[in-house]
């Protein structure tokens, strides 16, 4: 190592130690922290923090130490919630204390600090959240059902024509719904420019916000160090991400403005937000302009990839649990028949199908470890001290795999949501969309999009394991990616129409919606 390099590393070590002492909170309550693994001086539990599938490790810690687990990394306190009871007590009943977000410096570095999902609790967040709620509240979401059905029929038609490209079709469907609802923009293909930009920018966001993904989130001053120092490679990607994010926010909105200027009839979320935040002459202040961009852009950022994950998990469940698939199909055949496709009006009459969709959300949550929160102030819970600015992690995976709530949690079993008479229990896995003041504001539209996609695929197709040349079924893995938004790993399958009339029914549905 050169003298310059040695000096740089030495300075880095000194700064790490200094950062540790500046972060270490003082516990003057006289009460213990929640239990957790034993920590080491300075680095805390750095060596214990899992490198992959952290939700499973935190879940095992929960069984060893309790529903609330505490650990530290370089003086930063982390609290993991592993049960529904504690999640409700803290995140819902004490939402004022637990609605903040921790500082995530990488978000600013890559141009994602505008994202309301990770924005700190405060006036800016409340203003954006209010506008988002206005556009995606329960009553408003009903207006989007025709668009959801239209794009779902197109989704089925694509599966009919090119079933081997099912993964691409799944990615296209929620993106097409959101672009239509938010921008009145029709996505022509999976290679759409707007979709490609958004997908790449979102993939960078996932890396930046995943706990432990980068040291910059623990030591913000690292972003100011020279690029030649070890670990500074992230700077090479930050500029590209900033450009992508700026285009993702600006380009589709400019498309809407151009349509308005041309006199084309345009009605969508973007036009409504523009109308609400513009003056009578159609002008906006710089502050309002940023709010408009943030509100309309977050709809895609928050809704597309999460829905893709959930639908893909539904396909995986059909492959690995064919009996559950058959029961859902039998219910559809009995209630809806085989002469038409189900609609959202049929939803209340299909309890097993509803339970199937709920189980998709429970079996492997889209965000197995929810977006981190921060304690707004010191707090005491059941005799344990939770320090101000502690990072709070709700382990959704552990909650959804709590054997006390869900016996045999690793098994995909829709029956767990049904009573003895086959009626639906009031036990919707609500933590799939978050909890408290940070619950997903677009959950009603996302839930409808998921239900429609899964139900229509069940009605129209038989999704089954592919066979190799010797006629043996090809094994399908039940593993998921290790990321903020977790997806099933890639798999292959056969998708066949369930009856001879399926093709004509799908084409008729597509024609009726055009």
Automatic annotation (TrEMBL):
<dbReference type="InterPro" id="IPR001128">
    <property type="entry name" value="Cyt_P450"/>
</dbReference>
<dbReference type="InterPro" id="IPR050364">
    <property type="entry name" value="Cytochrome_P450_fung"/>
</dbReference>
<dbReference type="InterPro" id="IPR002401">
    <property type="entry name" value="Cyt_P450_E_grp-I"/>
</dbReference>
<dbReference type="GO" id="GO:0020037">
    <property type="term" value="F:heme binding"/>
</dbReference>
<dbReference type="GO" id="GO:0004497">
    <property type="term" value="F:monooxygenase activity"/>
</dbReference>
<keyword id="KW-0503">Monooxygenase</keyword>
<dbReference type="InterPro" id="IPR017972">
    <property type="entry name" value="Cyt_P450_CS"/>
</dbReference>
<dbReference type="GO" id="GO:0005506">
    <property type="term" value="F:iron ion binding"/>
</dbReference>
<dbReference type="GO" id="GO:0016705">
    <property type="term" value="F:oxidoreductase activity, acting on paired donors, with incorporation or reduction of molecular oxygen"/>
</dbReference>
<keyword id="KW-0349">Heme</keyword>
<feature type="binding site" description="axial binding residue">
    <location>
        <position position="440"/>
    </location>
    <ligand>
        <name>heme</name>
    </ligand>
</feature>
<protein>
    <submittedName>
        <fullName>Cytochrome P450</fullName>
    </submittedName>
</protein>
<dbReference type="InterPro" id="IPR036396">
    <property type="entry name" value="Cyt_P450_sf"/>
</dbReference>
<keyword id="KW-0732">Signal</keyword>
<feature type="signal peptide">
    <location>
        <begin position="1"/>
        <end position="26"/>
    </location>
</feature>
<comment type="pathway">
    <text>Secondary metabolite biosynthesis.</text>
</comment>
<keyword id="KW-0479">Metal-binding</keyword>
<dbReference type="Pfam" id="PF00067">
    <property type="entry name" value="p450"/>
</dbReference>
<comment type="similarity">
    <text>Belongs to the cytochrome P450 family.</text>
</comment>
<keyword id="KW-0408">Iron</keyword>
<keyword id="KW-0560">Oxidoreductase</keyword>
